[in-house]
Amino acid sequence: MTIKRIAVYCGASKGNQPEYVESAYELGKYFAEHDIELVFGAGSIGIMGAIQDGVLDHGGTAIGVMPKMLDEREITSQRLSKLILVDSMHERKQKMAELADAFVMAPGGAGSLEEFFEVYCWAQIGLHQKPIGVYNIKQFYNPLHQLITHMIQEGFIDAKYENLARLYETPEALLTGLNEAKPISTRTYN
Fold it and tell me: What is the pTM (predicted TM-score) of this model?
């Protein structure tokens, strides 16, 4: 499968170090340069806004999916190639999953983790076989990798899922990894 659209889960905050925003912008730029369309939460600030700006500043496409209730309260980007308004957070995640050929998590908070783990779980139970990657700016997600490794060691995640969502340090490595990812069989219960 050729990846044409990537859903990115990430924060509406910038983080405490400028490298987070700079690297997020570079990811967006890389997507645009490789004809990858961005699917994301439609925010104009933080890591979300930086990735979007990298895409759009370099002639790419950014598709935002925003729940109507948040559109009234949050800073919805006015630069989007396309805005899709939905009725709920559940519909937002479902629409993003439908539109995407692959999923990436960049630095963010609880919402980013929740979205990531949903597609991670969906892969385990066979609801999709789309590649998942983690854009590990400044080794932000090293503790997450350690947690997943611990969960495998303790028998709560099957060992075959060790590389279900690999960590990548550069946009080049991320896109290569997503394109080379092989589907993993669904979870079995013993």
Answer: 0.94
